[in-house]
Amino acid sequence: MNSTLLQRKNHDRPYVLLTGGTGLVGQYLLKDFLSSNTRLAVIVRPGKKLDARERIEATLQRWEKLLDHHLPRPVILVGNINAPHLGLSDRDRYWVANHCDTIVHNAAILKFAGADKQQEPWRTNCGGTKNVLEFAAEARIGHLHYVSTAYVCGVRDSVVMESELDVRQNFRNDYESSKFDAEKLVAAATHFKSKTIYRPAVIVGDSQTGFTSTYHGMFLYLRLLSTLIPLQQQDENGIYQTPIKLPMSGDEPRNLVPVDWVSSVICHLVKTKSAHGRTFHLVPDECSTTRMFIDACCEYFHSGGVEYMGEGERVGDSGFAKMFFQNARIYQDYETSDPHFDTTNLRKFAGHLECPVIDADMIKRFIAFGESDKWGRRRIESPKVEAWFGDQFERMSALLERLFHSGAVDTTNQNSMVEIGVDVLGPGGGQWTLSGFRGGEFHCLPGLPPTQIPTLTIDANRLQGLLAEFEELVHQPADSQWDVFAEKFGAAMTFAN
Q1: In 3D, which of 272, 280, 199 has the Cα closest to residue 36?
Q2: What is the torsion angle, in degrees rounded to the nearest 10, for the CA atoms of residue 384, residue 390, residue 394 and residue 397?
Q3: How many domains does the structure of the chain reveal?
Q4: Domain coverage including residue 128
Q5: Which tens digit of pLDDT belongs to each residue from 335-381?
Q6: Which among 200, 219, 240 is the end of a domain?
């Protein structure tokens, strides 16, 4: 792709390009961006059971059920950040160059140990980031927002400043190291107008619902306890006996942040131009403690027998302790320390978005959700879609041609090319631009036109019904019936610049 592909000016490229839209944070970014009417495009890989379009649709239908209203649909680009040019077709690369001036690179792999730097987590966290940076330069994307991790700080005793990256730190695992190297790649990129970096602490579930789509970190402990505790003996009071001596005081601070808060902060900062070009530690104002977490679990599972022994070696002197330590050893290096993070930039630009305190009630919500979700083993359901409007351009074009030709939809210049945006909300919906000369055929392209071009917004269910009515009507000559239909069509949508 060369510079001749870039035809639109930056202010006419309002789409935000998102990677990692099907991950935990990405699902919330989808909801938050679309709820704020941000024009969004997302790069998605096909899954094992659902294709790229179905994966996004399933996520959005889950949100719509919770929100009780329909959302816009993003432009879906089938690709893979681990492939050159992000695996995008020539047509999609051209589209990005003409519509996107901002990219939010959120895709990552949370894997702690890799065989070598050609494998995960290096392949996605470093190689994928390198591909994203090269593609962004090719498409002349001006603004980068990169989701890193607070743990690029490595093992630290001093306060970790937002302005710091390389202080010759050591790392606990390959995940931290790979994200550190990826951030160095971002720092070295010189072709952006701004680069904004987000470093969240340990991301947990939704503070309100307990939802998660991944069972790493804190959720690994919860799943482990839900499996092991019911296998233990109960005393005369029905309390499961889970004797374990923990090599900690119980008062160790834990930097845990709910995913809904992380997403809301990132979306706010993406839309706050004065915040761009900075690094933000997305960490809690008030840390949780190991004791609070364990006490909440014991209360939920009706178990007891925990002893806090201070610093020392893990000693599995009971069957329960041996099983617990064996299965939780992947996070052993995080059990007795967590850095203190500077949040100067966060407080200045997003201080009004308070991080929910993770307390015992929230921990119990996480457990309850995990149980209802069968700890990630619940069957993935296909989205329910009556019609994919992206496959019905001919029907939509025929309807709009008739509306334009009849004068039901006004245009300022009858001799010039007509261009109009169509934003279909809800299941099977999407965003398109229909263009053509009055009296001729309309052509349909993905994405809405520049903001000064009129856009029709309509609910997917309503549009499906109107298309069916229209196709019945075209076989009937009575103009009066058409007038009634045109009036009904106009009442069903919003038409605005």
Answers
A1: 272
A2: 110
A3: 2
A4: 3-200
A5: 877 999 999 999 999 999 999 999 999 999 999 999 999 999 988 88
A6: 200
